[in-house]
Structures are given as C-alpha cells and as structure tokens.
Amino acid sequence: MMDIGNKITRVTATAIVAGLTLIAGTAGAIAAGDAESPESQNWAFNGVFGKFDKASIQRGLQVYIENCSACHSLEQLAYRNLFDLGFNIDEVKEIAAQYEVTDGPDEFGDMFERPAIPSDRFVLPFPNENAARASNNGAFPPDFSVLAKAHPSGPDFIYAILTGFKDEPPEGVELAEGMNYNPFFAGGQIAMAPPLFEDGIEYTDGTAATVQQQAWDVTNFLQWAAEPEMEDRKRIGWKVVLFLLVLSGLLYAAKRQTWARLH
Amino acid sequence: MSAHTQPSGSSGNGLVKWIDSRLPVFTYLQKEYGEFPAPRNFNYWWNFGAILTFMLVLMIFTGIFLAMQYTPHVDLAFDSVERIMRDVNYGWLLRYMHANGATFFFIAVYIHIFRGLYYGSYKNPRELLWIFGVVILVLMMATAFMGYVLPWGQLSLWGATVITNLFSAIPLVGDAVVTWLWGGFVVDNPTLNRFFSLHFLLPFVIFGVVVLHVIALHVTGSNNPLGIDPKGPQDTIPFHPYYTAKDSFGLAIWVTLFAAVVFFAPNFFGEPENYLKANPLVTPAEIVPEWYFLPFFAILRSVDFNVWFIDAKLGGVIAMFGSILLLFVVPWLDRSKVRSARFRPIYKWFFWILILDCFLLGFVGAHSPADQVFDGVEGLLFIDLGHVGTAWYFIHFLVLLPVLGMVEKPKPLPTSIAEPVLGGGQAATGAAAKPMEKA
Amino acid sequence: MTDHASGPDEQPESRRDFLYLTAGLFTGAGAALALWPFIHSMNPSADVLALSTTEVDISPVEVGQSITVIWQKKPVFIRRRTAEEIEVAEQEPLADLPDPESDADRVIKPEWLVVVGVCTHLGCIPLGQKPSEVRGEWDGWFCPCHGSHYDTSGRIRKGPAPTNLPVPKYEFVDDTTLLIG
User: Fold this and answer.
1) Which of B88, B94, B240, B255 to mutate to probe the C interface, most C CBs <10 Å?
2) CATH number, domain at C92?
3) Is residue B418 predicted with pLDDT exceeding 70?
C-alpha cells in the first residue's frame, strides 16, 4: 500500500511540474514584448538531420556583399571560410581582392593598403562603432557574424524583418524621424530602410531575385556564418549518441547480470 | 602501521604490492570502493554522486583546454571565444561541452540536493557531510557566475554588473567593496582578468571540498531510501561490483542525454543575447541570469519593500543569500527523527510543494516583475507570484520543518533494510514506530 | 567476494565474462576516442594554418640586397645574390661542408636564395640581412647566440649548428612573385 501511495505522489508531482513548465513556456512567449512573433520557416538546416543549402548560401553571400556589406560587418569570418561553401581558391581570391586592407608597418614604419587575401578577415565597413553611428543617423548596424544565434527566433526573425517592412505605419503609430515601420522589430521602429528590392541584384545563377528569395538566401547565409560547424556537429553527434546508446545497453545488461547474483 | 596491511582480496602483482606497502593506495581503493559495504537498497537517485564526480572532472578538463585558447581581455575575449568556435580544432565541441556541462552539472547537483532533502540524508550523523555539500554548491555558484562573464557578451557584462552591485547594499562599506571587486569604477578589464583567474582556481577548491565530502560520507556510510541504518552484513552489499555496475549504467544514460544536447541543441539552455558583444553603453532590455540562478534571482527581486531600517535593496540581498545559507542549518531546523520521507506522510507532500515552489520561483525569475502573468488577466503580476514563492520558500524551511518534526506522526519503520528488500510487500506491517536508529 | 555473491549463477560463466569484457572494451574505446578532440585542439588551428603560405613581391629587391619576410610566423631570408656570391657558393667543394649539399640543390633560380632564417642550433635568428650587420667568415649569415657561420648558400660552415638553414617549399608564380609554402 505504502509503495503505491508513494508512486501516486510521485506521478502527480511530476505531472504538476511538467504542466507548470508548459505554462511557463507559453506565458514566456506571450510576455516576449510588443514585437510580432516571427513565423517559423521550413529551413533546410532545421532539425537533427538538417543540412545547409549551399546554393542558397552562395546566393546569400552575393546578397550580403551587394546589399548589406556597406553597413554590416562580418568580423568573425575570414575569406578563407568561403571554401566551405564550395568556392575554389581562385574564386575566393577574387572575392577577397575586391577589398583593401591596411597592413604594415613596412620597413619604413608606414602602414600601407593592399588587396585582401583569403587569410584576411572580412574587411569592416567602418573603422569603429562611432564611425558607423555617424554614417547611419546615430544607429549602429549590428555585426552579422553570430546574429542568427543572438535572437531567440534566430533565422526566422531575420527573415521576418527583411520581408516585414510596411510602407505606412498603422493608425496611431507615430514614427520617429528617419525610422521605418517593421512590426517584427522591438518597438515597431527600425533605423534601417528596407534593404532588399525586387531585382535589386542580379543572381549569378539566374535565380529570380524577388525580395523573398533574397531574404531567404541571405538568412541561410547568416545562419551558416553564425555556426559553420553545424554539419560537422550533427554528423559527429549521431555517431556519438548511437555509440552511447549501445554502451548504455551493454552496461545495463552488465548491471543486470551483476545484480542477478544477489538473489 | 599500514605497512603491514595487505590489499585484502587483491590479486596484486609485485609492483602493486611494492607500492602498496609504501603508500597503501590500493588497499585504500579496495577498502573504500571495492568491498566498501553500501546499503543494498539504493535506487537510481543515488547515481548522482558518481554523475557529479564525472561532471566536475569533465568541466576541469574542458576548461583547461579552453583556457589554452581564451584571451581574458575586454577587447579580445569575445573574438577569442568565436575563434575557438570557428578555427580551433574541435573548439566548438570543447566550448559547447563546457557551457552545457555547467547546465548538466547544476541539474545533477539540484537532483542530488533534493534527493538528500527527500530521504533526510542531512540528519544525524551526516550533518557535516551535508555542510560540505552546501559549501560545494556555493563554490559552484561562484564559479559558474564568473565563468559566464568570460565570453564577454552583453549578459556577461551586465550580469556581472548587476550581481557585483548587490554588494553595494552592504551598509557603510558597500561602495568601497564594489569598487574593490571591480578594480575600477565599472566592470571592466581588471574585473574580467580577476574573474578568469578565480574561475580557473575555484574548481580545484571544489575538488578539495568534494574529497572532504566523500571522506565524510565514508565515515558515516551512505543513507538509503528507507533512511534506517544497516544492522549487519545482510543489509549491505560490496560497492564493487554492484554499485560500480549500477553507477556506470546511470552515468552512460546521463552522458547520452548530455551528448544529445551538446550536439543537437547546444544553445538551448543559453541566452541568445550573450552572442552580442558586450557594450558598456547599452544595457539589454532585460538582464536574465542563467537558468540555474533564476529562483534565487526571483527571491532577490521579490523583496521590494522596506523592513524596519532595512531598505528593499539590502532586504533582497539578505533574502537571496539567506535562501542559500539557510541550507547550512537544515539539519537543525528539521526536528523529525525519521529520515526518509517515505515514512513521513505530511512532510512528503510539503517536499513536493517545495519543488513546485522552486519551479515557480524559476518561472518568476525569468520574467520582468512588473509584467502580467497572463495576458488579459488584470492584476496578477510576476512580482505577486514572487512574493508568494519567496514567502513559501522561507516558511518551508523556517516554520514547517521544525513544526512538522513535532506534530507529524511518522509511519512505522521497517526493522531492517534486508526485510523489505528481500521480503516483498510485507515490509512495514507490524514493525513498531521506531523514530530513529542508533547512529 | 562475500557470501552475497554465492547464489547459483543463472548465466554460464563465459557469457557473463563476455558481457563484462565487451562493456569494458566499449567504455575504454569511447574514452580513448573522446581524448582526440582535446589533443587535436592543441594542433595549429585554421587561422594559424591559413598563414602557412605567403606571397612575396620580389620586384623591388636589388642585386646584392636581402629582404626578410614572415612565413608561418618565422623569418624567411630572401637574398638576390651577386654573381660572385653565386660563384663562390657553386664552387665550394662539398667535402669542406659539415652538411654537404650542393648550391644547385638549394635554389630554383641561382639568383634567388630563399632560406628559413632560424639557426639550426637552438632557434636564434642569424645576423646578416642588413648591410650593417656582420655576415660571418663566409659572408653569409652569422648567429650571435653561439657563433654559427653560414655561407652565401645558407650552409653551415663553422660553429655548433648541425645542419644548413632549411629551404622552405616555394615556387615562382611569375618573374616577380614568390609563393612560399
């Protein structure tokens, strides 16, 4: 009798705890603020089997270079990282060589400019935060390196922002000077003007450059930029977890075998 | 004296004997982990000692290798962590193991503590064992807090600012203490440097206290789910192979869960905001500590009123530190002589309510106090839940534990461990209520 | 074992031992494999390896001049040798050398000598790159730490260093560009 009572207590308690955690989750989502929640998208990298869509990421790089890189840095990445996307050495050198980096000092003690090479980090659009703010109406365009990991909804949030601009704010919303209305951004006002335009760029692979397509591609690119190790991580993860399951099974058998001696 | 001790039952070769006669490590291992008599009725909640040992070693090991790559400087710390994630061979694995290791370490330690609370493992004669355990908890919290500062993200900086500012509540010397903690006038490079140094040091201090914890455990022997003392050899089994086998299995399951998180959801327990580089001029909209501090954070913020000459700020700090330090005196607050909650019909319920209360406080800690709990339900704010949760936490320990010990009528205890284990369901029948076995 | 274990075994001994052995082997193998990420994390990282090639523009170097470039964080000496220096280096009888190696084996174009500027004794940087520095008795380089003398082909001639200055892997991308590594 005592044991059964004990079990019931335990089960009830577990259920209550689970229920409370669930409430905590939903209430947390409700309380997340005045921004609209971004819709979940069906990304190729989602889930435990998810992989990167390399073609989309390559197009996303083009979107980044042509549309974003004038304001947004990518300071944790080096041009050599583009090898992971399937570019060869000449292509990477060509991309890098579009940018000038300051090197030195030379033998006379002077700094000098030279074209970037694959081992260089992505060249920054502004030398520092103050310069960036001065050129952007006081706003600081965030670095893109880990942006996809820096928001609870990550890629969904980026995609929602890029496709969520509205020309006119709804009734009753007063936009501050130089701000743009975007319901997915905290406060609904964002300093960045809509960055993507229909056919604003011409994809080298001939894909039709709709705003949605560009947003999709650049989000894929930013997700890759934020965690380039993801494919390795999941691939190794499967091996490790399967190995540990087999090991657990073996150890369970060994434990039962051992304890069988007690009876 | 020990030079004559032979490793009992060991089939040691010449070298083992040679070493053992000079430094009896093998005799010790055989005695403390081989034939060491453990109660035969441990359930799987007793696995967490082994799991925690594993976690501590894993944290020290991953930490040492991460420290080889990390740069403790405000201008370089964030970048050096990203370099670990991107350029260092398997650096992402080391860092994700370390970051999620902290989470799993705390899950395990909280289970271990609540195991102790449920089965009365802190009671005579295990008070000192329990106190060492609480010391380990406090050291773990300090270590985790300082470790979280090292990546120098937004929450690293602002978490450090908020928590160190707690000390400014100390009357008279508060501000001087905070300036001293910082080594400056804000959390800055000197702070980061000393936190790195201490974050490296403290785990080894923890290791030392763990050794004391284990020595104390082996003096008193383990408690067990029935909470009664073993009466003879029929109540115990040798630690090896029975509990080595059981611990190995439990540990393997634990590591599997850990690996699943590390490889497939490595940022699940982390705060996204900490992937933004620390900016001393921009405070995040909400500063949330790591999940394992949330209940204590809720207690801190729930004291929003002055008590006599103590203002709300100092009151919150006292309540928060009090909620942890309280654990030191639990062995003396609990007046019941019966250890296991299995035989304490009322305490058992309050135990589960305490667990719910801790979840509630964690829930409150994750939200802004002034926010509504449910959209559309006017009036119910998180601060209200915080008041209730905090009050209940202290009532549980300061009022219920002593009172229950006096008013609760425990169920009859079995006469021995072997009886219910071997004798099936007949265990409790007929046994007289014996409040406490002779220690 | 104590008498707890003396009950009748339900499984034959061999099957039990097989199970323990397998479980033990799996645990051991897993632990050993888990060590690799730790060990490998101490090997050169991707950003370090990315610096393992260096492109050098050698067009400004005049005959008789030397330049020092950095390759894998080590100094590499590039000397545009004069006709006499080349001749001396080529005529040197191999029998006189502590580490016999012909000059032809150490250069791609005789005019350009490319060697890693780290003394093979204990890792100091030899002198001799600048006109003002001592070049040693063989007019090549001289290591001030323990007095090793190198000739105009970077070969050890006198002193404690055991071997010649090593020649890194390099190629001429075009007439004025050198790719080291």
Assistant:
1) B88
2) 2.102.10.10
3) yes
B65/C contact by beta carbon, under 8 A: yes
Q: Are residues C75 and C148 in the same domain?
A: yes
Q: For chain B, which domains are there? A: 1-30 (no CATH), 45-111+126-212+233-262 (1.20.810.10)
Establish whether this prediction's ipTM goes over 0.85. yes
- Cα separation, B335 vs B408, in Å, equals 10
In a domain, C3, yes or no: no
Asked if residue C136 and residue C113 are part of one domain, the reply reads yes
pLDDT digits 0-9 by tens, C57-72: 888 898 888 999 888 8
> Are C34 and C93 members of one domain?
no
Per DSSP, the residues of A76-105 read: T-BGGGGGGGT--HHHHHHHHHTSEEEE--
- The answer as to whether C79 is a domain residue is yes
pLDDT surpasses 80 at A21: no
Whole-number Å distance between alpha carbons of B173 and B176? 5
Residue C32 and residue C120 in one domain: no
Residues C59 and C32 in one domain: no
Angle at C143 between CA C140 and CA C144, to 5 degrees: 130
Enumerate the residues of chain B whose CB falls inside 8 A of the CB of residue C4.
Answer: 233, 237-238
With H, G, I as helix, E, B as strand and everything else as coil, classify residue A29: helix
**Each residue of C45-103: pLDDT tens digit?**
999 888 778 888 888 898 888 999 888 889 999 999 999 999 988 888 888 889 999 88
Q: Give yes or no: B302 in active site.
A: no
- Spatial distance between the Cα atoms of A106 and A108, rounded to a whole number of angstroms: 5
- Answer yes or no: is pLDDT of B405 > 50: yes
Q: Residues B111-169: pLDDT tens digits? A: 999 999 999 999 999 999 999 999 999 999 999 999 999 999 999 999 999 999 999 99
C87 shares a domain with C158: yes
Q: Which domain holds residue C94?
A: 48-180
- Among all residues of chain B, which has the CA nearest to that of C4? B237
DSSP class of residue C11 equals S
pLDDT of amino acid B287: 87
Same domain for C20 and C55, yes or no, is no
How many domains does chain C contain in total? 2
User: Are residues C98 and C36 part of one domain?
Assistant: no
Residues B299-320, mean pLDDT to the nearest whole number: 90
Is the bond into C162 cis (omega within 30 degrees of 0)?
no
- Supply the pTM of this predicted model: 0.87
Cα–Cα distance, B170 to B175 (Å, whole number): 8
- Inter-chain residue contact C26 with A250, CB threshold 8 Å: yes
